[in-house]
Specification:
alpha+beta, Nucleotidyltransferase, domain 5, seven-stranded antiparallel beta sheet, globular
């Protein structure tokens, strides 16, 4: 789902919207508290009569309340997992403390002992804070504002103006927005007339009542396409709004024509299975119809692209390596283009607090440039007519250990994994590119032992090869060529390891050998294989794009 948010310039009847907001927010809180009864017709009829709402408005409120509940439940589950990990880390550090106590006392060990005790103390408080959250419930408004109001109320006379200000903000947030689900056959949404090109939307809460919203001049590249889809009854528009903002949400795949028409598929299944005599026959024919629809969707996506051409990336906090390859079959690939983007200038510490202007600017600048890099990658995909985007499965639990502070800072705070993943999915949906996610195990090791080129680029080559051969038998690990064996021998000699020990081992054994000693180095440096270096769009971006010959 894509959401576009507009600011409201003016509204023809703000007082009506304010009253409607109060009704909606109160009804939403009531239904949330009694969500288990949301299927009870008597309860829904009571809500409709009390708040003077129709069937679709009630359905929208139930859907919104369910989304709030599901979101909060997922946060609770995530917090429980984090608490378990923190307890495990705390126990491991306590074991280290006991071992240090049993050793001979030195200045270095005393310092280390103090540091470990401080870590345990911080973990204890972190666990207690998260456990308090487990016993809480959803706050309609803002948990922080409610906490601030409670704290300031300890001395009302001194903080009277501040309390009023906080309460006003809290009540505004508590009212939230009016949420109305869309319907494609009602020109997007039955409650609205959309004119996105002229930034005007007419709200029709009931017969004879019209409220005009004039929106900000924010432009979206797909506005005309969205308006055309609305006018032709091709897309449902879910709306969320108040007197200050207006947001529309819709299915991107449906907008760009890269989705399956479920109504048409349902009718085809019904027609194909009407003479079936057994459940097995019905199931077999249904699967065949579904398979045909997925094949037609895939053919639509690769219509103007080269089917066997792939782009894969290796995501790191400081670098993004990419490779474009052709799959030649039999686990063989042809390299078309390779390169990397360097973010080192934007990942340095500002030396200021996280809420300082410098830190905020640096964070916003880094996120902006990451988005620009993803846009550049998809421009390359369109230029080279790539059909499939390949990336690693980055859905893993972050390491909560605190010994490696700089490593944790980069992985947890400045990698922006979720931002990158969401943007990649969005761009694939818009352009009709196929997205493949692969298991990243040993990709960095295999890449560096197979190609004499900078580490992220080498890893991206292995990721792309693995994605390209994902559905081929024996495509998980690469075929070892003369060049691969030679690269292994170079790395073995550089680390003073017996060549035969690396050459004759499995990939798992090689990983164990090369990661068993901190002194062993198998990752190639930034200058290895480089052919050109240039700024991304402008020198002001702070991003260096390097091109490589693998």
């Amino acid at each position: 789902m894509k959401t576009i948010v507009y600011k409201v310039k003016d509204c023809s009847d703000p007082e009506f919207i304010e009253n409607k907001l109060n009704e909606y927010s109160y009804c939403t809180r009531l239904i949330y508290k009694k969500l288990e009864e949301s299927t009870d017709k008597n309860f829904l009829d009571y809500c409709k009569n009390r708040f003077k709402l129709n069937d679709i408005e009630i359905r929208s409120i139930v859907s919104n309340a369910s989304q709030i509940r599901n979101s909060f439940t997922s946060k609770i589950k995530k917090t429980e997992e984090e608490i378990t990990d923190l307890i495990t880390d705390s126990e491991e550090i306590k074991v280290k403390i006991e071992k240090l106590k049993g050793l001979k006392i030195t200045v270095t060990r005393i310092k280390k002992l103090k540091k470990l005790k401080k870590i345990v103390f911080n973990l204890k408080h972190k666990i207690a804070r998260k456990q308090r959250f487990l016993n809480s419930d959803v706050v309609f408004g803002s948990r922080k504002l409610l906490r601030d109001i409670s704290y300031l109320s300890n001395d009302k006379e001194l903080n009277l103006d501040l309390i009023k200000n906080k309460k006003s903000k809290y009540l505004n947030k508590r009212n939230g927005t009016i949420f109305l689900m869309g319907e494609a056959n009602q020109k997007g949404n039955r409650f609205f007339d959309f004119d996105l090109v002229n930034k005007t939307i007419i709200y029709k809460p009931f017969k004879g009542k019209k409220i005009i919203f004039n929106l900000s001049n924010r432009k979206d590249p797909f506005e005309k396409l969205i308006q055309n889809a609305i006018d032709n009854k091709q897309i449902a528009i879910t709306v969320s709004f108040n007197n200050d903002m207006f947001s529309i949400s819709f299915d991107e795949a449906q907008l760009h024509g890269y989705c399956i028409n479920k109504t048409e598929r349902k009718n085809d299944v019904k027609e194909a299975t009407k003479y079936c005599l057994t459940k097995e026959e019905h199931s077999l024919i249904t699967k065949q119809v579904y398979s045909d629809y997925y094949k037609r969707l895939r053919n639509r996506k690769i219509e103007d692209k080269i089917e066997n051409r792939f782009l894969g990336i290796d995501l790191n906090p400081e670098h993004i390596g990419y490779s474009i390859v052709d799959n030649l079959g039999n686990n063989q690939i042809k390299i078309i283009k390779t390169g990397s983007f360097n973010f080192k200038k934007l990942t340095v510490k500002s030396g200021k607090s996280s809420d300082s202007k410098e830190s905020i600017y640096l964070n916003n600048k880094r996120k902006h440039e990451r988005k620009e890099v993803i846009c550049e990658l998809f421009s390359l995909m369109r230029h080279y007519k790539v059909s499939t985007f390949i990336m690693e499965d980055l859905d893993f639990k972050p390491n909560n250990r605190i010994e490696a502070n700089e490593f944790n800072r980069k992985v947890k705070n400045i990698w922006d994994r979720e931002l990158l993943t969401n943007l990649i999915k969005k761009k694939c949906t818009e352009g009709g590119f196929i997205l493949e996610v692969i298991n990243p195990v040993y990709t960095s090791l295999i890449g560096n032992l197979s190609y004499r080129v900078f580490d992220p680029v080498a890893a991206s080559l292995e990721i792309t090869r693995r994605g390209a051969t994902k559905y081929e038998k024996g495509g998980f690990f690469p075929i070892e060529t003369v060049s691969t064996i030679h690269t292994m021998e170079v790395i073995a000699k550089r680390n003073h390891i017996d060549v035969g020990l690396i050459r004759d081992a499995s990939w798992k054994e090689r990983h164990t050998i090369l990661n068993s000693n901190v002194k062993f180095r198998y990752r190639w440096g930034e200058k290895v294989g480089i052919t050109d270096s240039l700024s991304l769009k402008s020198y002001r971006s702070g991003i260096i794009q390097n091109l490589y010959c693998a």
